[in-house]
Amino acid sequence: MSTPETTGHPATAHEDSPWTLRDYALIADGERGALIDPRGEIAWLCAPAWHSGSVFTSLLGGRGRYRIRPVDRWNVWGGYYEDGTLIRVSRWVTADGIVSCREALAVPADAGQVVLLRQIRAVRGDAQVDIDLDVRADYGRHPMTDVQRDRGIWRARTGPLHVRFTGAEDTRPGPDGGLRTRLLLPEGGTHDLVLEVGTRRQDALLDPRTLWEATERWWRAAVPDCADTAAPRDTRMAYAVLNGLTSAAGGMVAAATTSLPERADTGRDYDYRYAWVRDQCYAGIAVAAHGPHPLLDRAMRFVADRILEDGAELRPAYTVDGEPLPGERHLPLAGYPGGGDRAGNRAGRQFQLDVFGEALQLFAAAARHGVLDSRGAEAASVAADAVAERWNRPDAGLWELEDRWWTHSRLCCVVGLRDLSRELRTTASADWARLADGILDATRSRCLHPDGYWQRAADDAGPEAALLLPLARGAVPGSDPGLALTRSQVVRDLARDGHVYRFRHGDEPLGDAEGAFLLCGFTMALAAHAQGRHTEAARWFERTRSACGPTGLFAEEYDVAQRQLRGNLPQSFVHALLLECSARFGRDPDAIPSAGW
């Protein structure tokens, strides 16, 4: 039974402080994603698409909420993902019982309509649960209007969006326009809630059981078993995250959020709700290390389409449906503490040479698995021509900095051209191989330090952790002294406590300017593996994959001293590199034996 709640104060934009990033869980359906906090609140959800305005915004101090939590506030929170899915079960132990809430975005998804499923269960003892819903479109600007109940189903509008809420027929509107109720459940009882937010009115009735069954089937089909990898459960989780972040149109967002700080009050907080071509290539290459799973084909098609449309003018990032990024603008929000309030991203206008090299590696991986179609092969040729035309030009590089002659960008192109020449046998294959040799020779003459290690750029002799990835993937043989010396220099100058930082920020101590970069920790493991140093590779791999919160999600950076996540969440390329390490190490009988977890 349900009763209207009459206690408590109306929610405000800043009713509760946000949680540390490690405590948030993600549910996602490929078209958008929601972050859930330990209180049972949907703290962030954009609708209808990743880059749309948010309808729940408490993560950044804004309005809009959907909260389910026990009436007994004296409780301990926890939760888990159902293995190989982004179906989350939140769980609270109260003074006299246990309450859970099973949560997911229904899949397969509709690009114009989000369907959020929540199933409350009284696990032990009777349960009393507060339900509080206030959908506010465009980052909280639009309160719900036209709120009405029709045959037990609530409908409303918020800005241009339609809202339908099923399963809370006894709910009553609160003084701020939101809907509130208190649910009473006997021990063992369950109650389903279905929230729909979309661009059009929905009249067809939805059955929660049917939606749950379809969602379970979708996840079973999307995520492989991974028993042949070094860390099967974590690898399944990586697959789930990558699937959840990848749209049916093929684009994979870098993260589900915007403006979460990499370091408090430094201005380094960006909007990552877009598809970076490089990140998409990382995901496809990682999946290819395990097998020809559908994410490889989706990555290949998305990248091929962008290259065929834009050629040598390829942008570093797009919306998930392939459109140019909007420019940066400020939002009317307080922002996450220490962070900003921006939407949009300036990186879409940069030239980043390494993206072409990563794309060539992706196309070669697709060819190796027999999934490179004629359109992909054409895109590969266009990308190779772009490298031939532009490899000697300064670029912004992997880290999107000032235009310079970055070593990493050239070595990525060397790897991509060589891979393509081996896997795609055409009349141009020999030309690609010669071009790779020529770029390597020129880069060696300008960027190989007299001491034998690869330096950061032609005019910067400093260490650079990003170099480990193209070196591990075959820019030079595993026995080449340049790989060993470069990795040794990164270990000496950029690693602390088993974690790896990108590069030096002047004379600042490591950890002061930014956190350890988890991508670099996994690339360190790959580089050690390429050298045949399997025990060392295992140590780097295990240390880096421990740098997540209790939900198992990785951010871009890790604050080693405070053991906290930093930056937007979850970071797709970190999950991709975990997958690649686990797949490669599990496949090699001399590397890391599978631990079964």
List keywords for this structure.
597 residues; alpha+beta; eight-stranded antiparallel β-sheet; five-stranded antiparallel β-sheet; 26 strands
Total helical segments = 14
Shape, per Cα inertia axes: globular
Q: How many β-strand stretches? A: 26
Largest sheet: 8 strands, antiparallel
Percent of residues in β-strands: 15-25%
Rg computed from alpha carbons, rounded to a whole number of angstroms:
24 Å
Lateral strand order in the biggest sheet: 7-8-9-10-17-14-13-12
Rounded mean pLDDT is 94
Oligomer: single chain
End-to-end distance: 41 Å
Class by helix and strand content? Answer: alpha+beta
Low-confidence stretches: 1-12
Helix content: 25-40%
Structural features, described:
The protein is α+β, with helices and mostly antiparallel strands and 597 residues long. The protein is built from 14 helices and 26 strands. The protein has an 8-stranded antiparallel β-sheet with strand order 7-8-9-10-17-14-13-12, with helices on one face. Strands 1, 6, 11, 15 and 16 form a 5-stranded antiparallel β-sheet that branches. It has a 4-stranded antiparallel β-sheet with strand order 2-3-4-5. Helix 12 packs parallel to helix 14. The two termini are 41 Å apart.
Question: What's the layout of helices and strands?
Answer:
Layout: E1 2-3, E2 25-28, E3 33-36, E4 42-46, E5 54-56, E6 65-70, E7 75-81, E8 88-94, E9 98-105, E10 113-124, E11 127-134, H1 137-140, E12 145-150, E13 153-158, E14 161-166, E15 172-173, E16 179-185, E17 190-198, H2 208-222, H3 232-244, E18 275-276, H4 277-290, H5 294-310, E19 317-318, E20 329-330, E21 342-343, H6 354-368, H7 374-390, H8 407-423, H9 429-447, H10 468-475, H11 481-494, E22 495-496, E23 499-500, E24 516-517, H12 518-530, H13 534-545, E25 557-559, E26 564-566, H14 572-587
Helix pairs in contact: 3-14, 4-5, 4-6, 4-14, 5-6, 5-7, 6-7, 6-8, 8-9, 8-10, 10-12, 12-13, 12-14
